[in-house]
Amino acid sequence: MKVLTRLFSMAGLAAAVGVLTATNALAADLKVGFITSLSGPVSSLGIPYDKGMKAAIAYKSELNGKKIQVVSLDDASDPSTAARNARKLIDEDKVDVIIGTAGSPGALAIAAVARETKTPLISIANANLPGEEGAWMVTLPQPAPLMVSAVVERMKQSGVKTVGYIGFSDAWGDLVYDALQKSAEPAGIKVVSNERYARADASVTGQVLKIVALRPDAVITGTSGTPGALPYLALQERGYKGQIYGTHALINPDFVRVGGPAVEGLLAPTGPVIVAEQLPDSNPIRKVSMDFRSAYQKANGAAPTDAFSAYSFDAWLLYLDAASRTKGEPGTPAYRVALRDSIVSTKELVGTHSVYNFKPDNRYGSDERSRVIVKLEKGQWKLVP
């Protein structure tokens, strides 16, 4: 009898261990890959993205009783490294979705891997691929045409007739320039220049000299982060007195710090999260934005002062919403397909930047509710009515 009792006890212990192991496996079977730029020229954006992800995890780290594991990698602002990171996350870490990265070129590199491996990508950089090439990605930052058209409307109201353009010599510079061309002509505004520079360049004096010689009423840039301050510094050095404009890719404290007096008075579009406390209580984005601020404070020990960290937070909200509607076994190809289908069918998801609605053939999920115009006054972004 003692032997039988011992056997039953051992069997019970083994069963308990088995249950515990199974429970732990279930608790950790949701995996998210996160890629950002913690070093290199895009790090002024990549570090805020990282802080936003920390806020997101502090906000909610479990779904339906299952713990979500986040595997984070630094791409050093290099698109080829971003692609290698994506492949590692998918092949070795078995993630079901990738959130990343800080720059458009890196996001496009990840998108190629996502398409090949049939893994959903939630891009937190502004990147767009048409048709089947982008079938496995969605993009959270507001599309350039949506935001640039708001800037052009403001230019028209201010009597601007000519505008000079300078942007990065990459996908983001192209997106902004194309959007400017399409919006400016119907508004009666002539785009008089298309100057470019690399993100790692130390000077844009030559490009700005050409722009100043054309004497445009205003100048707008297709840039981001600290490298985006270069044209404004050069314009100030050359005594340019016209109105200066930017895009939502400049809403960053490092840009403000580096630009200093040269960017005072800059007008730019951005998501409502930047001026959340100035929104009416009836705006649903206000509550989510304030929740984000609380989570950011908890995770990072300070209040957010940029627009980029909120994109990571919104990516997390999108993932949580989609995963809650996805059936199947995480870690399998079938689950990744189902998760992608859930992401691209998202309806009226309230985030900090937008109320998101996605369709299978539309990479962007934002509409006019995702944009406001702000002005930089004494280092602070103020809502322009």
Draw up the topology in text.
Elements: H1 2-27, E1 30-36, H2 43-59, E2 62-63, E3 66-74, H3 79-91, E4 97-100, H4 104-117, E5 121-123, E6 137-139, H5 144-157, E7 162-168, H6 171-184, E8 190-191, E9 195-197, H7 205-214, E10 218-222, H8 230-237, E11 243-245, H9 253-259, E12 267-270, H10 284-300, H11 308-324, H12 333-343, E13 349-350, E14 355-356, E15 372-377, E16 380-383
Parallel strand pairs: 1-3, 1-4, 4-5, 5-6, 7-8, 7-9, 7-10, 10-11
Antiparallel strand pairs: 2-3, 12-15, 13-14, 15-16
The number of helical runs is 12
Computed structural class: alpha/beta
Number of strands: 16
Overall average residue pLDDT: 92
Q: What would you call the quaternary organization?
A: single chain
Q: Portion of residues in helices?
A: 40-55%
Q: Sketch the major β-sheet.
A: 6 strands, mixed
Strand content: 15-25%
Q: What value does the Rg take, in angstroms?
A: 23 Å
Q: How would you write the strand order of the largest sheet?
A: 2-3-1-4-5-6
Kindly, what is the distance between the CA atoms of the first and last residues, rounded to a whole number of angstroms? 84 Å
Dominant shape: globular
Low-confidence stretches are: 1-28
Order of helices and strands: HEHEEHEHEEHEHEEHEHEHEHHHEEEE
